[in-house]
Amino acid sequence: MAEIIRFRDDEPVDHPAVTVDSFLDQSNANAVRVEPGDDARELIPHIGQLQLVEVNFPAFGDGRGYSSARILREAGYDGELRAVGDVLVDHVAYMRRCGFDAFEPDAALNPDDLQTALDRWPEIYQSAADARQPIWSKRHGAA
């Protein structure tokens, strides 16, 4: 694993995440790892207890983790949401739109390439899990 990239100011969780099944069977964990095929909605009743949710991307073509992130953010989860695994620089901007605020890629990401990817599209057209304002609402004065 490469270095963790965080877009948060709080302290990172310093202990490993447990599986969703293990988390649901115990009461003291505050970090969980969502694998492809896990139902992130099972975590919604517990989001107040969670400090870290890792979402595994075992292959760059497996997009199920995007849905897990959006489900959790729309349910009100405000803890660290970390994409782990086959995270590519080309996907980071889209992952940020879905609510990811930390990344632990298998291979290191070039910082310049990462910033270029994040800056590529300064305007967006639809609302998402991030706080960016769609361009149409700016143009028409809506909030």
Could you characterize what this model shows?
The structure is a single chain. Helices cover 28% and strands 17% of the residues. It has a six-stranded mixed beta sheet with strand order 1-6-5-4-3-2. 27% of the residues are buried. It is α/β, with parallel strands linked by helices and 143 residues long. It has five helices and six strands. It has one domain (5-139): Rossmann fold, CATH 3.40.50.
Name the structural class: alpha/beta
What is the number of helices?
Answer: 5
Order of SSEs? EEHEEHEHEHH
Mean pLDDT, to the nearest integer, reads 89
- What is the percent of helical residues? 25-40%
User: What strand line-up does the widest sheet have?
Assistant: 1-6-5-4-3-2
CATH topology assignment: Rossmann fold
Instruction: Tell me the domain tally.
Output: 1
CATH architecture annotation name: 3-Layer(aba) Sandwich
Compute the CA-based radius of gyration.
Answer: 15 Å
Task: Measure the end-to-end span.
Answer: 40 Å
CATH top-level class: Alpha Beta
* Sequence stretches where pLDDT stays below 50 over 5 or more residues: none
